[in-house]
Amino acid sequence: MIAKDLQPFSIVGDVGFKYFTKTLCPLYALPSVTTLTRKFDDKYVDIVNGVKKILSNGYVSITMDGWTEKHTSTNYLGVTCHFLANECELDSITLKLHNITALQHSSVNLLNELNDICCIEWGIKGEKIVSITTDNASNMVKTTRLFGQDQTASVRCFAHKLNLIVGDAFELSPFIKPVITKVRHIVTWFRQTIAASERLKNLQKDAELQPLRLIQDVDVRWNSQFYMINRFLEIAHFVAVAITKYKAAPPMVTGDEIEMLTEIKDLLSPLEEATKFTSGEKSMSASEVIPAVQCCYKSIRRVSVSSDPAKKLKSILLLQMDRRFKEIENDDILAKCTALDPRFKTAYFTSERLNRNKLIGLFKNGMHQIEIDLSSKLNSKRIVYILHLNYSFQTRYFHLQLIWDQVQVTSQTRAMKLLSSQQIDRRKIIFTL
Amino acid sequence: MDEFQAEFNQQSSECPTNVNSLGKKLRIEWDIYMSMPLIKYENNPFIEWQKMKINCPLLFEIAMKYCVVMGTSVPSERVFSKTGRIMQTRCNLDPERLSKITVLSSINDKLLLNILRQNE
Fold first, then answer.
1. Are A94 and B106 in contact (CB under 8 A)?
2. What is the distance in angstroms between the Cα of B67 and the nearest Cα belonging to chain A?
3. Quick one: which of A6, A106, A194, B55 has the fewest CB in 10 Å?
4. Residue A116: CA atoms inside 13 Å, Cβ hemisphere, count?
5. Do A340 and B67 touch (CB under 8 A)?
6. What is the torsional sign of CA A330, A332, A334, A337?
7. How far is A83 from chain B (nearest CA, A)?
8. pLDDT tens digit string along B32-80?
9. Model pTM?
10. What is the per-residue pLDDT across A349-397, written as a single tens digit (0 to 9) for each?
């Protein structure tokens, strides 16, 4: 309960909880806070050891990010780990929430921390980590490069990239800012003025609609700006009615501006969707990046805009996307992920470079690593497995060959009978078939 | 006889069963993989791979390696929003313990139960 429901340890002293346990099980004596804390620490070690065993079975990937906690203004480094649970499902756990001081942000320090967390604390071998996903901050990227060397790829967060694209696009289109600021003023005013927001609610109720509140945006994320605009447009009609009653109210946006906002919203919505699309934790998410980029291009191009500012924004957005995503198909790891996802394969590749030979070359490199990993574990079970792999592989292709080329095979089998003494291996395969 | 032998040797060198090089094996598997239709977006790619495992054992291994890669660092950010909620009410919590709580709360219920059962 401490871990899952995030209840404080002091729950054992709470009157309600005491009464609850007493009713449930009158003879049970609740542990004291100190005992509970000690037990918690013991249990933690047990569970971590259990998870370690599971993690050591296969490949994992890691994401990490920095964060500043507002209340105590401490910096944290969050590290999560993703692995295959049962061949049909991805699972993820948090490895550590590490408290770092401001001085420790250099890549060398982060590298040491990462090493401590992954390799020492959780016993994950470096070569088992396929990739590390971070934001675009240079210290993070450098850390992953240093950590990974050849084995571990560094992936840059797609959501952060989208965030930067929209941020830069807004920066480059100053004509949009005044309108958004106007909307923000209105939203802030409504949130501060109780009478006005009450009126807004009643107006919506009168129209027999589920009352919606205006959403305030947060500086960091463009998503929140998008949601603010979206909600504002949804109930703009009611806002306009409500606002006219008050003298002190900020000026309402004009019809022109509403049209412009709608078009901005239409332009941004593909990007918003792409963010949601790739943010899944339980599904393959790296394979979705390239398809998501292509879909963004397509749907942004498809949006028809009439107002001048929106037209400008559209071209700026596309330019920014070109800047950030031009090389995305040259990112070997993302290309591999997409190609090996049976939902996409090569359908979304546009670059000539990713042809059959190139992809096979990429797989070959990946395979090389796997074979080294397998053979480095020199236990008999693994060796049998490799043999089995090659064996079933050969018979399977022979079988396919049979189907593909009947004539050849008949001539081969005839030849086989004649020259059986020289082709013992082949005979074995034929018999097993 | 000699003619047969010559023909057969040629045939067998071309036949995929005798292919030993990794690149060639992968090329064949890739062609098989590509000859199958794309599955729908809603479908689980892992289940599809289980079906394909028998035809493309090498590609399967590679796919199982790369399927864990994450495209975004959103998972880490989710951890922060969760921790943020804890810290709002319990700001005196020792960072070490805070980390332990977040780690434990992130473990999937099924997995947690399994581990606890094994330990008992």
1. yes
2. 6
3. A194
4. 10
5. yes
6. positive
7. 6
8. 888 887 787 777 888 888 888 888 888 888 888 888 888 888 888 888 8
9. 0.73
10. 777 677 777 777 777 776 666 655 554 443 333 333 333 333 334 344 4
